[in-house]
Amino acid sequence: MKRLALYELNLEAQPGAFAGTLMNSSRDLVTRVCQGDQEAFRLIFDRYSRPVISFIYDMVNDRELAEELTQETFVRAFRAIHSMKPETKLSTWLFGIARNVARESLRARTRSTREVTLEDESVMDLSDHNPVPVDRLLSKELNDLIRRSLAALDEDKRLVFTLKVFHQCSYEEIAEITGFSLAKLKTDLHRARAEMRRRIQPYAGVGYEV
Amino acid sequence: MKCEVSQERLEEYLDGELNERESREIATHLATCSSCAGATAALSAERDVFSRYDRELAIPPSMWDQIDERKAAPLIIPVSNNGFGARFAALFRVPRLGFSFAAAAVLAMFALVLVAVYLRSHKPRQTVAYTPVPESSTPHEQIKSKSSTSPDADKSSPILARHNPTRRTVPAVSRHNIDQSDVLSSDLGYPDIEDQETAKHIEQTQNLLRSIRNVRLNDNDAEIDVSYDKALSRRLLNENIVLRRDAEMKAKYPTKMLLSDLEPFLIDIANLPDQAKPEDVRVIKERVQKTEIVAALIGY
Fold first, then answer.
1. Per the CB < 8 Å rule, is B71 touching A75?
2. Does B42 sit within 8 Å of A206, measured CB to CB?
3. 3-state helix/strand/coil string of A101-157
4. What's residue A178's pLDDT?
5. Chain B: which residues have CB within 8 Å of chain A?
6. Residue B193's pLDDT is what?
7. Distance of CA B142 to the CA centre of its chain
8. How many helices (H) and strands (E) does chain B have?
9. Given this model, what pLDDT does residue B296 score?
């Protein structure tokens, strides 16, 4: 299950991986769905459900909610797939829908889930002065630290950071998904990286300040 | 290339977002600059850390079934925004006013409230014939007493109706025709809902106590039917306790004190038998008169 995001978005560029699935290009699958082929949409779901749920989870920081929103994303995708422009990349288009679904949920959700801040004790507890090398850090702790550090980013920074670092989207794709200008997304990405670095640094041994 | 320039572009370089020429320049610089090469290594290590991020997410087997079920439901057919049909339909579409509509509605309501306040404060006073209530204890009360001469007041005071025949001579005047600029409670005067409830409660209690105070006791009467007043008093007593506590919690001490003063009267009336002896009613009546509680209520 690890490193899902690192390869899943590049599946189209990896002939051979999941050969049974990739015998159909994304464009072919979209065409088949538009022609009424129900099975083609199932293949799209199989291919993209993991990156979509990972992305949504990074945005909403809630496992059950991420599952619900992933379901909603694919239902909306199915209903709107006829209007998808031919030049649009399927993954970018799906992330765009997922981003809207996640954002609507974040707007609607009451602030019952407290956002983690730098002052949060649980973050500070980990930020002691005895950093543990990353290879000795329990993976669960690292996962938890990254998750909480992500949650502490503001929404725009979290969005661009997630798309770039975990989903390997290009700046152009991020701009298409988010609607941000190139300048804004570069600034947000740089600041998000700096914030994440500051939180991860004591454990990861990442000592470089950009 | 200077190190500052190189380091500013390192993230884009590693992201693969630089063009071929820019990438070559950075690569050339990194080959000769250990500092920038170290920075690049640190950024790479950082990427490695993030690549370890495992959300431990799994796609539930039921998710596809639910999606399949939902997509089988009636669809909203997507309409292209570019076609002639869409543009033609747009001519007849109801505009989405959204926030502007809500803001306009709020402004309109605010304007209506202002007009209502203005009309109330500038309403010409009407002269209404009324029969002064006997035994009013203060001149202020006499001025106010016309509010209790309305048909509603009679309805809520059966003792008054039974034992004060002069009350029946009050001409039936519609409540709406009476100048109500000096009524005890008004919704506009009590913007807070709890204040409105308190004002209404005090008005009802005032009517009850007024009916007790003005009752004409005849020594020949063996018993007086106070069942209605008793039931009313019990209801008002419950309300009174709740409102008094609320007033105390919100530090509205004058209101709390007034409500505290009311409670003994309401308790006494509530504890009367349905067919009360005239002496029992007289005791309460005299206390109402002596303490001038009605006047205090009018002053609220």
1. yes
2. yes
3. HHHHHHHHCCCCCCCCCCCCHHHHHHCCCCCCCCCCCCHHHHHHHHHHHHHHCCHHH
4. 93
5. 7-8, 10-12, 15-17, 38-39, 42-43, 45-47, 49-60, 63-64, 66-68, 70-71, 75-76, 78, 80
6. 64
7. 34
8. 15, 2
9. 77
- Interchain CB distance below 8 Å, A67 and B63: yes
CB within 8 Å: B55 and A142: no
The first and second tokens of residue B104, run together, are 């306009």
Assigned token pair, A140: 């669960």
Q: How far is A204 from chain B (nearest CA, A)?
A: 7
Of A66, A78, A134, Cβ closest to residue B71: A78
Domain ranges of chain A: 1-113, 116-203
Cβ A143–B51 below 8 Å, yes or no? Answer: no
Residue with the larger pLDDT of the pair A19 and B60: B60
Rounded to whole angstroms, what are the CA distances from A154 to A78, A96, A148, A157? 30, 18, 12, 6
Q: B46: nearest CA in chain A?
A: A206
CA dihedral of B38, B40, B43, B48, whole degrees rounded to 10? -100
Architecture of domain A1-113: Orthogonal Bundle (1.10)
Residue B88 is predicted with a pLDDT of 61
Q: Distance (Å, rounded) from C-alpha B66 to C-alpha A17? A: 27
What's the pLDDT score for residue B172? 42
d(CA B42, CA B35): 11
Interface ipTM > 0.85: no
State the DSSP code for A109.
Answer: S
The closest of B95, B77, B221, B100 to B162, measured between CA atoms, is: B221
A116-203: in CATH 3.40.1190.10: no
Six-digit token pair at B51?
């690549």
Q: Tens of pLDDT along B82-116?
A: 445 555 665 666 555 556 667 788 888 888 888 88
What are the angstrom distances between the C-alpha of A54 and each of A32, A167, B49?
A: 26, 9, 17
Cβ distance of B53 and A50 shorter than 8 Å: no
Task: Reduce the DSSP state of residue B97 to 3 states and report it.
Answer: coil
Cα separation values, A111 from A64, A153, B153, B278, Å: 17, 15, 50, 63
Q: Supply the pTM of this predicted model.
A: 0.49
Q: Which residues of B touch A50 (CB under 8 A)?
A: 57, 59
The residues near A196 (Cβ < 8 Å, ≥ 6 apart) are A146, A149, A150, A153, A161, B50
Interface contact B71-A71, CB threshold 8 A: no
